[in-house]
Amino acid sequence: MATDKQGAAYLRENMRGLQFWNPTTIPPEERGKELVRMDLNECPYPPSPKTIAAMQAHADQLNRYPDGTCPELGARLSELNDIPTAQICWGAGSTQLLKSIMEIVIGPGQNLVSPALLWHRFHGAYNALAADVTIVPNKDDTSIDIDGLVGAVGNNTRLVIAVTPNNPTGLTLTEAELRQLCDETPENVLLYVDEAYHEFSVHAGGLDALQIVKERKGPWVVSRTFSKAYGLAGLRLGYAYCSSEEIANAVRLITSTFNVSAFAEVGALAALEDTEYRDFILESNATERRRIIDGLGKLGCKPIQSATNFVSADAGCSGQDVVKEMRKRGVRIGTWHDVGFENYIRISMGRPEDTDACLTALEQVLPMVRGA
Ligand SMILES: Cc1ncc(COP(=O)(O)O)c(C=O)c1O
Questions:
Q1: Burial class of residue 94 in the structure, from the number of CB atoms within 10 Å of its CB (0-12 exposed, 13-18 middle, 19+ buried)
Q2: What CATH number does the domain containing 269 carry?
């Protein structure tokens, strides 16, 4: 726990003097401009017309509190994945669930084991918990080191974390790796797998991690989201399948009774049923991903083969500088936040015209930044 921070003494020590970074801010110089948003792993298409209609039809019921257990949606997901509804819980995005799961598991001084390279929000959550965190470096190819993760589990460990496909790498665990993780994580330790990019992974011929994790003997949680493949990032609805009702109830308690908005269940249910629209999003994503990977390769970058809606690459020069120059040209892309990966950029998939704009801007920016 940090002990040397200045700040308000009534705050917990690890909560003092923190900075807050808002990734959706549009600075004054960019307001009113046409922006190509390829930085936050969002879906570039609006929600399906059926989803919008379902939410509009529900608007006159917003005077009522929602049923935070999402009974109809839960029943449908239960049927699709053969998990009892009592073992499914809901969050304002899966971000809330990952934090909640840490909170219900990790007590003072207890340990969790995590890969070093994973969605950066996890590191924020570790700081907020003041947890004892064992960080396991990823392998040289940036994939998660399963031997390292299970080898780091000690007597004090309560939680092991993995993300597949992972962010920012875009890489999935292999079936053998995931089975090893499930088998070798001790039965008194909760295994948490974030599967936010699940639909893209399955579309790319990859794993349905849940189906493997649910065979594990020890406790587990797998979280997913409607933010990505269903184009509903603004709705804020994530969900977690848990190995027991006890885990799901603990999450329900630590979030809140009316945790998700009244639009969330109706919108997500309509989106889940509109498989034609979801398939269009997945197909379009795969086409643009191919174009971005090829384009990056031609521009002298080293792209990582991704199974998600984003592609990361070693740009061969400062990622921050590339991002700055791209923004001047109206294209927002991201960098990695990890030490040793300062040359990495991350590009979220857009519509075909966004890919055109991105590759055109990169063609100008990369030689300039490399030559600087
Ligand atoms: C690995 C991972 N998990 C979870 C999330 C957050 O999803 P949600 O919108 O459901 O909070 C993200 C968002 O980019 C992510 O990359």
A1: buried
A2: 3.40.640.10
30 and 121 co-located in one domain: no
- Residue ending a domain, among 258, 273, 288, is 273
Find, among 194, 127, 131, the residue nearest to 161 by Cα. 194
Tokens linked to 67: 């049923």
Q: Is residue 4 part of a domain?
A: no
| Ligand 1 atom nearest to CA at 94 | 10
Atom of ligand 1 nearest to the CA of 227: 9
Q: How far is it, in rounded angstroms, from Cα 270 to Cα 246?
A: 29
Model pTM greater than 0.85? yes
Let me know whether 128 and 230 are in one domain.
yes
What is the tally of structural domains in the chain? 2
Residues 263 and 323 in one domain: no
Beta strands in 40-187 (DSSP E): 88-91, 111-115, 132-136, 157-163
Cβ pair 261, 328 in contact under 8 A: no
Helices 319-328 and 352-371, axial angle in degrees (round to 10): 120
Give the residue from 322, 249, 255, 274 showing the smallest Cα distance to 55: 274
CA distances to 103, 181, 215 from 3, in Å: 21, 34, 42
**Model confidence pLDDT, tens digit, residues 58-92:** 999 999 999 999 999 999 999 999 999 999 999 99
Ligand 1 mean position to 223 CA, how many Å? 10
Q: 217-233: per-residue pLDDT in tens?
A: 999 999 999 999 999 99
Q: Residue 185 and residue 356: Cα distance in Å, rounded? A: 45
Core vs surface per residue 163-182: b (16+ CB within 10 A) or e: bbbbbbbbbbbeeebbbbbb
Kindly report whether the peptide bond that precedes residue 71 is cis, defined as omega within 30 degrees of 0. no
Q: Which of 222, 239, 273 is the last residue of a domain?
A: 273
Residue closest by Cα to atom 14 of ligand 1 = 41
Q: Please give the residue range of the domain that contains residue 169.
A: 49-273
Ligand 1 pocket list (CB less than 6 A): 41, 93-95, 119, 163, 167, 194, 196, 225, 227, 233, 238
